[in-house]
Task: structure prediction
Amino acid sequence: MLVLDIAIIEEPAAAGASLDPIRSRILAALAEPGSAAMLAARFGLPRQKINYHLKELERHGLVELVEERRKGNVTERVFRATAASYVISPSVLAAVGPDPSRSPDQLSARWLLALGARLVQEVGALLTGAARAQRRVATFGIDAEVRFSSASDRAAFAEELAQAVTAIVGRYHDESAPGGRPYRVVVGLHQIPGSGRSEAAQENSR
Result:
């Protein structure tokens, strides 16, 4: 089985299994194949306890058996994580998940968070389906940083960006195109956590 860069966890039980502190450490350690004995020695835990957690992770498809080694009267099972990293889809909390359509507000951080959650859920579903069909997903992303000298510059930037995106979407959108496929465009702007005083604090100090 091919080890994925990122795997999407969409089942509540699998999400619960991955969030256990010991199991998350096991997943990180099994980026390279290892056995229960190796993990027990590394973590200072009984082998039986490690085996229990491995069985749970295997049951939810988070680790896989890569080989069995015979050592005397004992068979050592070697496991590997099925992905280098994991993302839990918001679909796990479908009943209480954020809904961007509930209160759209371009200036709301909570709305931006809801957009991000929907992005993870939708792209995650695409990746899961594409993996089963052995196909690629057509996506595009931009990641950039911009440092504003003032809140007014930030507001002007947001307004200009909104106008540009609206114009481009209007130019290419064709509601009646035969065989056309809908794509979602998400653009967000937020301060980088830990990058200094908040914008509000800076305004208050002036």
